[in-house]
């Protein structure tokens, strides 16, 4: 029917075909499925509160950077990384996993380990190269978000070779944010102006951004399974590491960053070995 009348109803009528009130879906939009929301359970409050705290700490790091307080800005982001490492475990311990928590965690990670480090490094060094420095900062923030988007898109896929073998794909967002600060760690430890050079910092930041979205197989915590004979030594090492972080924080962070970077080729080699053994096993069974 013409003259603005369609199926006995005005085209401008906000009711859709099912008789519900609401705007129509226009070209390029996707309908949002209806979900019954019962709110968060009390068990889910604790892990989500920790995630929210990590988000606030990451953003507070930017505030410290604006004031030129570089040590506190880095400390805020690193503390956010520590909280990010426990919120998921607490959620699993309390059996409080939720879609809301997963979305909040991704949002917190993108801001705390992508946007915050990018802006802190820009204010600290990269602003001396306004164009190139800003593009480097954008690369870090964007690649962090792309990594998290890829993770969310693949979370329900069964065919994930890296995950099934106990490895991660690319450098995780919290570790990537921490590694991006390596020039700042070196500058704080030595007060050497070379480490604040915007060209070197930009190259390093772009490299870390690439590693975050790469398909490189990296080691995960689940891949570390120390034998019973060295577990006492491992406890002693962790205790000494904590003391070193208090006494010489910047040199310790440099050492931790260098060790992680040195382990990247080992992780790649170990994954190739695991994949080769699996392929040999399939060939044998065939």
Topology:
Elements: E1 5-6, E2 9-10, H1 42-66, H2 70-93, H3 99-124, H4 130-154, H5 161-164, E3 167-169, H6 173-180, H7 182-190, H8 198-213, E4 217-219, H9 231-247, H10 249-285
Antiparallel strand pairs: 1-2, 3-4
Helix pairs in contact: 1-2, 1-3, 2-3, 2-6, 3-4, 3-6, 4-6, 4-8, 6-8, 7-10, 9-10
Keywords: Lipid biosynthesis, Lipid metabolism, Membrane, Phospholipid biosynthesis, Phospholipid metabolism, Transferase, Transmembrane, Transmembrane helix
Protein name: CDP-diacylglycerol--serine O-phosphatidyltransferase
Catalytic activity: a CDP-1,2-diacyl-sn-glycerol + L-serine = a 1,2-diacyl-sn-glycero-3-phospho-L-serine + CMP + H(+)
The portion of residues forming beta strands comes to under 5%
- Overall number of domains: 1
Residue runs with pLDDT of under 50 for 5 or more positions? 1-36
**Second rung of CATH, namely the architecture:** Up-down Bundle
The top-level CATH class is: Mainly Alpha
Helix content, binned percent: 55-70%
